[in-house]
Write a structure and sequence with these properties.
This protein is mostly helical. The chain has 4 helices and no strands. The radius of gyration is 13 Å and the shape is globular. The two termini are 15 Å apart.
């Protein structure tokens, strides 16, 4: 399991990282783990959660002229929070 990716998401959720710091670090680390077949070692539920977090992080846009489907920092944090809560239910 990718403890580092999950810990990074939890750090963002707990406001230890800004959205910019989180999105850049998470996406870079996720791509590294994907390219090195480390994500394949995660269970299906963990892997799906980490993939969903990646997709949501990719929707983050700090600019005020963002498209409707893009997320600001508050929306990003809320979506990450929901995904982590959903994962912890299982």
């Amino acid at each position: 399991m990718s403890n580092t990716l999950l810990a990074l998401a939890k750090s963002f959720r707990n406001e230890r990282l800004t959205a910019d710091e989180f999105a850049n670090a998470y996406m870079g680390l996720w791509k590294y783990e994907r390219d090195n077949a480390l994500l394949a070692k995660d269970g299906e539920m963990i892997g799906e959660c980490l993939d969903n977090i990646f997709c949501i992080a990719d929707l983050y846009n700090p600019q005020h002229d963002r498209d409707e489907f893009e997320l600001d920092e508050v929306e990003l944090r809320d979506k990450i929070d929901q995904l982590i809560d959903k994962l912890q239910v299982f």
